[in-house]
Amino acid sequence: MQEKFILAFDQGTTSSRAVVYDHTGKIRAMAQKEFRQFFPQPGYVEHDPQEIYSSQVSVAAEVVAQMKISPKAIAAIGITNQRETTIVWNRKTGKPVYRAIVWQDRRTAGYCDELKKQGLQKMIARKTGLEIDAYFSATKIKWILDHVKGARQAAENGELAFGTVDSWLMWNLSNGEAHFTDVSNASRTMLFNIHTLQWDEDLLKLFDIPAAMLPEVKSNSTLFTRTSGLIFSTKIPITGVAGDQQAALFGQMCIHPGMAKNTYGTGCFLMLNTGNKAVRSQNRLLTTVGWQINGETTYALEGSVFVGGAVIQWLRDGIQLIKKAADSEKAARKVSDNGGVVFVPAFTGLGAPHWNQDARGMIYGITRGTTREHIIRAALESIAYQSYDVMKAMQEDAALAVHALRVDGGAAANNLLMQIQADILQTPVQRPLVLESTSLGAAYFAGLSIGFWNDLTEIEKQWQVEKTFHPQQSAEEMEEGIKNWHQTIKRVLL
Ligand code: ADP
Can you say whether the dihedral through the CA atoms of 273, 277, 282, 284 is positive or negative? Predict the structure, then answer.
């Protein structure tokens, strides 16, 4: 019998990737294509929706060609995507009425401040699990309707469709037949009630968004649509969809309450599975739908660190203490500790649980004996300490103990950083064999739905750890470092 595969689309902020997974969960082929970023004004970030789609289709064709397989060998497609990014298009012509407004875009920040002043934060958090912020799609949709000529009228006439990137891809892949999204992407729009799992009428009214624009919301592992004959000769079912962080949590097989993952990229993205409970955070973390499978909903808490791996980029490009990111490990290993140096890389303020936009970075504790290596070590430690603060806040909110932290992302390659993380958390850190957690999660959702994998137990068994970092220092030994870190944070916030 011909071998079958799952094709995962990982539509990210700077590039589109396609990854082919086989039945054992191994990567068999991968292709990636960057696309343009538009910055038309300070604070504005846009993408060309057509380019998002065409780059995604071209990498899909590339992996199929690389593998020399017939599209018939692809049992299903899974999609994961940059979340919140907003596209509005005309249902008849299929043309976007405006460029995609990217999650990073701050053009609606002023409007969000007004909403906060009106005292709407509590109501919005209660329904959506989110903080009022320009990240989320709601204010971006409103901006398009308010600023594109004729858009509001057309939307009210039912002529326009809204979608996050998953919806946009599916609509195009199905040649305009499917207008769907999934619960995880919907839960980042600030229009979706995460308890009833429905678009929220009050919020639609508040943002003045016609319900007719919205996609139908489905669970994560189910038949969404099929590709039309335009892309591949066969119609391939799309049977798994999730936003990138949720897909990563699933790809890490954090499927039980108390399981958590951290993605160490430019920033760090932490997520904790809280089971069937939507936990309200006391530390301004976000509550979100992880996924829904077979009618069962799993919730998660999410927190992020703004500057994670980016502090290492700064060492490389800013003050040029290292030539490449990986050199940070070699240098930091030359010293046994930070020599009293604490580095708080609050380049763009501090996120959870401190939440201060105006905070700026600090390197504290420099003496005559401080070396380049101490500063590099302190920079690595800062990634681990910031992640520790978010993890602590999450565990407190959820009243759950985390027994292991699963890691991925570029900086997870740094063994010293992973060891430091395990020591600070006093928790084992597990780095998986397949580091592509995001696309793997999309593949798992898609494969589960068609019986490519029978159930979660089967997937859990095949998911493999490459290396576990066990704490090597005691909690007492770590105490002083944590105290120094928090003291320095206090100095930053003075
Ligand atoms: P993103 O998806 O946000 O672009 P990646 O997951 O590709 O990020 O990770 C890149 C980040 O990881 C960069 O900020 C880089 O400085 C950091 N990084 C990469 N390798 C290492 C390493 N060996 N040690 C520490 N940081 C690293």
Answer: positive
Q: What is the DSSP letter of 494?
A: -
User: Does any ligand 1 atom lie closer than 6 A to the CB of residue 304?
Assistant: no
Provide the residue ranges of all domains of the chain, joining segments of one domain with +.
Answer: 5-245
- Helix ranges, 5-72 (H): 49-67
Note whether 328 and 299 are within 8 A (CB): no
Q: Whose CA is nearest to atom 27 of ligand 1?
A: 411
CA of 409 to the centre of ligand 1 (A): 7
Residue 322, SS3 per DSSP: coil
Binned average pLDDT, 10 residues per bin, the chain of 494 residues:
92 93 96 92 92 96 93 96 96 97 91 94 95 93 97 96 97 96 97 97 97 97 93 92 97 96 93 95 93 96 92 94 96 96 92 84 96 97 97 94 93 97 97 93 97 95 95 95 96 92
Q: How far is ligand 1, taken at its centre, from the CA of residue 418, in Å?
A: 13
Q: Report the CATH architecture of 5-245.
A: 2-Layer Sandwich (3.30)
Its pTM stands at 0.93
For residue 266, how far is its CA from the centre of ligand 1 (angstroms)? Answer: 6
- Cα–ligand 1 centroid distance for 145 (angstroms): 37
Q: Which tokens is 26 given?
A: 């191994």
